Amino acid sequence: MTIPLVARIGVLVLATTAFYGYVGQMVPQSEVQPPEEIAIRADLTTPEMVEIGREIADGKGLCRTCHTIGQSGALRFPDLAGVAGRAAERVQGLSALDYFAQSLYEPDAFVVPGFNPGMPTINRPPIGLTDQEILCVIAYLQSLGGTPTVTLQTSHRYYAAPATPGAAPPDAAAGAPVTTPAAPGVPGTTPAAPGAPQKPEPGQPLPLTRPPAEPAPAAPARGAVTR
Amino acid sequence: MKNRKLQFLLGPVLVLVLFGAVVQMASWLMSREYKEPYGAPAATVDSTPRAAGLADEKADTEARAKAKLYEEAEYRTFPVVGSRVAIWSVAQLHLLFAAFVLAVPLFAFIIEVIGYKTGDLRYDKLAHEFTKLLSVSFSLTATFGAFLTFMLIALYPKFTNYLMSVFSPTFLPYVLLFFAEAGFLYTYYYGWGKFHPLVHLGLGLGLNLVGTAIMFIANAWLTFMMSPNGVSDTGAVISVMDAVYNFTWMPINVHRVIANVAFGGSVAAAYAAFKFLQAKSDEERAHYDWMGYIGNFVAISAFLPLPFAGYWLASEIYAYSQTLGLTMMGGAFSWLFIIQAVLIGNLFLAANFYLWLGMGRVEEAQPLQKFVKYLLIAIAICFAVWATPRSIIATVSELRAMGGSAHPVLGFLGVMSAKNTAVNILILTTFMSFLLYRRTGKVATVPWAKTGHAAQLTIFAAAAIFVIFLGVYGYFVEASVRIGLSVPQVGSVLFAMVAITAIDIFLFRGAKTAAVRWGRVPASSQYVLIFIAVTFTWLMGLMGYVRSGLRQHWHVYGVIRDNSPDAFTPTLGFATQVVSVTVLIFFFLIGFVFWLASLHERAEHRAYAPSPRKGPHTGVDVVLDGARLSAPNVEGRTGLS
Fold first, then answer.
1. Are A87 and A140 in contact (CB under 8 A)?
2. What pLDDT, in 10s, does the model give residues B69-111?
3. Helix (H) or strand (E) holding B316
4. CA–CA separation, A73 vs A86, rounded Å?
5. B611 vs B324, B624, B639, CA distance in Å?
């Protein structure tokens, strides 16, 4: 019996398609959900911030898409193991806290030698972390080879915590999720109230809002640091 | 006779069934709308407490209905498969047909030019035969395009509205160009042989220019979604020109033109293969063998530079956003490139296999066939390297034994240095297969033949060694240096291809040539052509998915977030299932196109035609060459069978 040509071709098309479909089932299967919003309570302790920072780094922050922890060799982006120990010495005049803040808010200001620029600005879309989430990420980074010190009341050169030290942000009662000041132009955020701490527009000089106890270093000129 | 009655009845029955289905669907859709509860007119019934209650209820419902505020729906749901899969499938089918409709005129035009320049009518006939596939495909492209637009408006109204607000200035040119394309296409096809050849070529050129312009406009919309430009952080339009000329627009334009030609060539070759396998005479077989060869030649010629266009696109994605680039190559989609490696590896293997089988057409092919095994070994090794993943799926104990998810030895083959090297060597090897095929049965007669051969071999070896050297060197340098090494790798392969071809052209000028016996190939070679077409189509579906899926939970990356229930990125297994089903639907429809195109060659059905006894002119004389006529009297008279 001769199999009709159309049937033979049909079987070939079906078999080829099925084969590629089968190959598709052989690779690891993971469904990637949109990042979940993490509620940040105003009374978080530093160890709790470290945990939340780790979650953000693995999820919404997309840090682990590029950065490794504890790997060596020809890496595409700097490895983060022990980064807390290196942070204070990376840029002259910048404390570890401000270095971390700068690498998140203004990542191209300093690029680790041997690497290409490529880090996105973390408080703007598509990642768009809030100031409180960034503080948690900084706490996590401080825990990598150091002792985390930041709290939700910590100010740095890109963010001023509410005026009263130790007080919760004005619109958050203890235990309630914090509504962070709006990032300019970020969809879904509300504009900051007049008088509330404002984040600088890209390219504008950065306000130095370090608490008085710790004298603020002069901000390095953009581009003064060689890559 | 009974069958004819059945066929006669089948038409109206089908119409009734379709009508019933439309009514049913309309009823179902209408039933989802709000309906007022029935209440008899108050004047016709006595007022009772129940009637008063019903009247109050009705008045209350009316009042609430009138007070209802207009709200723009953000999303609507498509039944059973969901909105995303519905849009995905329709968009993919639209793009596959559009790619075919844009590609075929491109190489039909080039073949027609060759025919015009050489005066060889075979080329003209071939170009005409390619365009036979166009008219139905064009209608299907437009139908799926309209379907896609309506579905976008219905299922994603808010997002579609946003895209329309950004790109509204591009819509009128798009529609006008579409009209122009329809005009050029049908005039080009129906005007074949009716105009001066140069006028006809002008129509072909116009068709290609207009088609390419349409694609460029549509590409602006989709690339904007991936790498938006010209808008503020909230999505307000600042510059439409910047929105059009975004980071990935031009790389996608170039990549699509090349990929469309490769895809169109492969589908046209599959058509030729189908006709070859159906052929009854040696003449038909010879013609369709030649047509299949040309189609495949077009496909593979376009396929060879495609990875270079892909590099450019990928580098622009990285330049726009490292996060997007790393999501593609190192994040959620990294394993997709292993599937891609399997597909491209198969394409290279199949294309080379077809060429090696094709060497049998030429007398005195044996001296060159001995090289095939070395080429096969090189291709197999490169394929294996390219398909090696960086991380191995393993059990806990295996992971412990390996010291991580990367295999201690094979893991080194899973990085870009090795993969770039493998794909460049694959391209060089396939190019050598082409070259061997080209010179099969030819003997160079120029006095510098020996030097020419030596120069070609030296260039090939130098390019291969250089590519491998850079691949190994990449393991020992920093990332910033390593990324740049792909450029000289690609450059050296391109240089080798151009230089060797240039030498070859002069080397074999006036060469002694053995006869090519078209049609003398095994039937398996034709199935290889169909396999290549299916693989190309599947590859297009897969890469279309990664381009679109890369945005993950964003409609417009970083600007308009996807808040629908489908905002998650599905598993690769699910994605490949959708691609597979779409490919099957495409081949079912393209089979329909092939069938319609083949109707051209069938004899006119003249069951009611006057018998030859009544007069000499029955109209059968003008029936196409080579057609098989069923009526014995006609067959006997015309001699066609």
1. no
2. 888 788 999 989 999 999 999 999 999 999 999 999 998 999 9
3. helix B306-320
4. 18
5. 72, 20, 16
Residues of A in contact with B478 (CB under 8 A): 74, 114-115
The full DSSP string for B61-109 is HHHHHHHPPP---S----TTT-HHHHHHHHHHHHHHHHHHHHHHHHHHH
pLDDT for the residue numbered B11: 78
Enumerate the residues of chain B whose CB falls inside 8 A of the CB of residue A72.
none
Could you give phi then psi for residue B569, rounded to 5 degrees?
Answer: -95, 120
* Long-range pairs of B638-641 with CB within 8 A, sequence gap ≥ 24: B640/B603
- What Å distances lie between residue B23 and B18, B30, B31, B146, B211, CA to CA? 9, 10, 12, 22, 38
- pLDDT tens track for B513-530: 888 888 889 999 999 999
d(CA B553, CA B561): 6
Contact B584 A127 (CB under 8 A): no
**CB neighbours of residue A27 within 10 Å:** 20
Report the C-alpha gap between A181 and A191 in whole angstroms: 7
Q: How confident is the model at residue B555 (pLDDT cuts 50, 70, 90)?
A: very high
ipTM higher than the 0.90 cut: no
Q: Does B31 touch chain A (CB under 8 A)?
A: no
Structure tokens at B425: 């060597």
Nearest CB to A24; choose among B326, B560, B573:
B573
What phi and psi, each to the nearest 5 degrees, are found at residue B555?
-75, -50
- Interchain contact, A12 vs B531, CB within 8 Å: yes
What is the distance in angstroms between the Cα of B444 and the nearest Cα belonging to chain A? Answer: 41
3-state secondary structure of B623: coil
| pTM metric for this prediction | 0.79
| φ and ψ of B441, to 5 deg | 75, 10
Contacts of residue A196, Cβ cutoff 8 Å, sequence gap at least 6:
A170, A181
Flag if A74 and B482 touch (Cβ within 8 Å).
Answer: yes
Number of A to B CB contacts under 8 A, please give it. 145
d(C-alpha A39, C-alpha A179), whole Å: 9
Distance CA A191, CA A182 (A): 5
Helix B306-320, helix B322-329: angle, nearest 10 = 130
A chain contacts of residue B274, beta-carbon cutoff 8 Å: 5, 9
Q: What percent of chain A has pLDDT over 70?
A: 70
Instruction: Give B-chain residues touching A66 at CB under 8 angstroms.
Output: 322-323, 326, 330
- Partners of A127 on chain B (C-beta within 8 Å) are 323
Pair of tokens at residue B20: 């019933």
If pLDDT is split at 50, 70 and 90, which confidence band does B231 have? Answer: very high
Question: Nearest-CA neighbor of B127 among B117, B115, B135?
Answer: B115
